[in-house]
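pinned: reference chain
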Amino acid sequence: MRKVKLNKLQATGTTTGDVYFPQTKLLLPFDGANGATTTSDLSNENHTVSFFGTSQISTVQSKFGGSSLLLDGNSDYLTIPNSSALTLGSGDFTVEAWVYLTNDPTHAPIAVLYDSTANRRSWWFALTTSSFLRLRVHLDETGNASSVMSFNGATTVTENVWHHAALTRNGNTVKLWLDGVQDGSGTCSFSVYNNTTDPLQIGTYFANGSPSAYFPGYIEDLRVTKGVARYTSTFTPPVAHLTSAGDVNKQIIVNSTADGVAIGTGGINQARIAQAWANFNQTSTQAIRDSYNVSSITDSGTGASTINFSTALSSADYSAVASGPVTSGLSMNYSIGIGSLATTSVSVYREASTGTAYDGTYMTLVVFGN
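pinned: its structure tokens
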């Protein structure tokens, strides 16, 4: 029998999947029977969706799949409980949906995490009228409109036609997309405000906790992806969003005696092994060079930093390791340690053997745990 080297084995996929499905934080196809008032979030987050007014699933209009969400423009909207998964932070993201407007409102919110009058502004993706109906994005840094990035698209959004609307952030560049074509862009250099009070609102936005405007028409395949700008150049809008990672990259499992392999059938788990990591500078104004699952850094004094997580860990009983530079020419040892461990942050300290705190230039942190 001919032997096959394990490092030559490859798994070929049989199920097409979305390579970014692990980063998908909300996926609402709005499939169901006509008149249904429940729907399922098909992302791994499995959010609970609540219907208000006469909002319902409808088979009257659909881009694909046979049904969509019907909103009457007067009292209908959906909410999803507040979740860190739906905050946008400082990383890349994509918010998108298929929309079908039945009239021309002043504001037609698609999806927002926002309260306009209670200092809880976070992000807003909607259609608005200013000479003509067009897309609009609003990102807030502080929650009270003191530092805001917002702009409108340039293209008229026609009624009684399905349109694909998308909002992306790639680095500091934010773009609106209409039917696969860039419709406007802006610059956002800050972390989007973390609204921990209000639910995600679909088809409305809140003013002091109450609906203030309503979307008139149909919405289908609403999707939020964190960590990825799915669109960076002109694209063909997706016909239907895939609901799994697929198995193109199936895991190869070597058995306990290492004389055979099994091909996993559940699809690869693309979650990262590290729960968070960061490369940061403590000198002068403390700043993060690059990171994963880190929203910001807090300067806690000389040689002291607090690294704040974008998505909270499930437990504070995790492992964290930090390292940093040695200053050439000094006859002393440096100690770099971890301070308080919290589900939302971890503290890092650097000092010399003399007990004097020193800032580090190239500091690194990695966090492992659940």
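why pinned: The longest strand covers residues 216-226. Confidence is low (pLDDT under 50) at residues 265-270.
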